Amino acid sequence: MTSSLSTASPPEVRRRPRRWLQKNLFNSWLNGLITIALGGVLLWAGVEFLTWAIVEADWRVIPANLPLYFVGRYPADQYWRLWLMLAIIGALSGLTWGVLAQRVVRLFTVPVLVGLSLGGLGMMLIPTPPIYRLFGLGITLVSVFSAWGGRQLARQFSQLGQWLSLLWAVTFLVAFWLIRGGLGLKVVSSNDWGGLLLTVLMSVASILLCFPLGVLLALGRQSSLPVVRGLSMAYIELVRGVPLISILFMGQVMIPLFLPEGVRPDRVARAILGLTLFSAAYLAENVRGGLQAIPRGQWEAANALGFNAPLTVGLIVLPQAIKISIPAIVGQFIGLFQDTTLLSIVGLLELLGISRAILANPEFLGKYGETYLFIGVIYWGFCYAMSIGSRRLEQQLNTGQR
Amino acid sequence: MTQSQTEMIQDAGDAGIETRPMIVAQDVQKWYDNHFHALRGVSLTVNKGEVVVIMGPSGSGKSTFIRTFNALESYQKGRIEVDGIHLCHDLKNIAEIRREVGMVFQQFNLFPHLTVLKNVTLAPIWVRRWPKAKAEEVAMRLLERVGILEQAHKYPGQLSGGQQQRVAIARALAMQPKIMLFDEPTSALDPEMVREVLDVMLSLARSGMTMVVVTHEVGFAREVADRVVLMADGLLVEAATPEDFFNRPQEDRTKKFLSQIL
């Protein structure tokens, strides 16, 4: 309509570094002083850290124990199963990314390419036998290729997106089978799972299980049936009033006491159960916040159209409520991932537990800085990835803006 | 009004030939939880094909009254029958009535997470159990009728208020209701968008739809209504043809109301 007006663009503001510095760091003498003081502290800390990392630190503890950090005492002759699992997950991740990004003009933008090359380079630099470095690089390439392929496929078959979630469900089962064995594969007892493998396995399983449970609890708490509401509230308040560590202790120490001799559920299963039951209560509160944000008019419109209560919740209220709660839910999942470290206290050899075991080895005594920094970076990497994923998901679901 | 549009509203063609009551409300009384007596014995009969406009000052109970017709509000005394079905606490009756009664709200209440097309097809697919193809075909015809065909794949948040309200009308019509309730459909709209919504309602009325409209639009009431009703303080004050209502009001309360809005 007003094309002559809309073509006008705002005057271009050129950012000059000096102006920027003046405006943001030195706009008064007090701020200038603070800038100089804080800059000095940061510089000093940086120099100290680098001196330690390059000169003093003895990084041999990392490469020498790399398999332990990643998979614990998983038998080395069965590593191929884990590599296969990684390859499947890598391919499916790539495919999912390609399908989700089908409308994006360029799949491999500069930041993505930089990230991929850094990832590939990192794979090559991992201090493992060369064959494993090649595996790592290969999986990266498989992901890239399936991302490209997924994009091409999704443009031809619009149904593909609906099959992805099913494919993921199958993949989780296959991954679990590959880790555990059975059905023709040698069984690897859960006592031998460890390191990052165990951390990720327990987190993913707990996240997948606590989500439906949390949603049900949130709905139960909003229910008009007094018994359902009462039980949900009682559960949520009870669990939220108890520290996670005590629930985990209960799972590892108390449950076996109650059960008859010989009946002893798997330690990992008990840990997952504890994490799930704990997180579900918090998740329920997050989802409840989302449910309460849905205006009454949505219920009324659904009722007026003849939807019954389950359909109203499933088709109209819950999709919107979960969309609103995504940031809180992902925050909860990040917390859950970090909470798996508590399991090292009850004796599970997940990433932190195995690190403590390595530090107890006389050969690597006192290498705290190196070890904790290393696993800290790993934890950060996973949490940051979840955080980015959540932001992407929000953008994907954002339908309100013009 | 084209042939297909007339066909879409079932049973509408024989309006005026018989006077079958579609809504019968007798001495309806409602108290809110805080004991506020919102409806103090309201009786109204709406015949098939009739357009009844309810006017009245805010807080007079007119919205509450029409919301009892599809059980969005409960009532404690009196009796309501919709298309011969007694509206009581029986969930089966309520579900049956809601399938036959469409409603358009002041705040549109579109589902923001679904496209316009999905907003319109959701209820036919899940409540009426129509196949998707049929639901979409009907939806596209309705969207064309209300003039939003080009926006079918946009989200409600991307449309203007007037467009959203027209989608809401299409959404209600997609269930092929026998009765349409309008709860102040133009009150939340910018002035320049009121006309487009009223035009859709006008053509709907001309097609023989039974309509109960709560509105402040005097022009619409004069032009379209078969009867205009004034409610005040939870009571039905006066019901008359638009001609009598606006030119020869009988009750003092009506005269006072008209002097305030005209």
Mean pLDDT reading of chain A: 86
What's the tally of helices of chain A? 17
Compressed to H and E, one letter per element, the order of chain B equals: HEEEHEEHEHHHEHEHEEHH
> Portion of residues in helices of chain B?
25-40%
Q: First CA to last CA of chain A: what distance?
A: 17 Å
Query: Looking at the structure, what is the overall shape of chain B?
Result: globular
- Biggest sheet record of chain A: none
In DSSP terms (H or I, runs of 4 or more residues), the helix count of chain B works out at 10
The computed structural class of chain B is alpha/beta
Task: Report the average pLDDT across residues of chain B.
Answer: 89
Description:
The complex is a heterodimer of chains A (402) and B (262). Chain A has 402 residues and is an all-alpha fold. Chain A is 75% helix and 0% strand. Chain A is built from 17 helices and no strands. Chain A has helices at 3-6, 17-24, 29-56, 61-64, 66-71, 79-100, 110-125, 130-156, 160-180, 195-222, 226-240, 244-258, 267-292, 296-304, 309-339, 351-360, 368-397. With 262 residues, chain B is α/β, with parallel strands linked by helices. Chain B has a six-stranded mixed sheet, with helices on both faces. A four-stranded antiparallel sheet of chain B has the order 2-1-4-5, covered by helices on one side. The A-B interface holds A 295, 297-298, 300-301, 303-308, 311, 315-316, 319-320, 323, 397, 399-402 and B 70-72, 95, 98-99, 101-103, 105, 107, 109-113, 122-123, 126-127, 155, 157-158, 168, 171-172, 175.
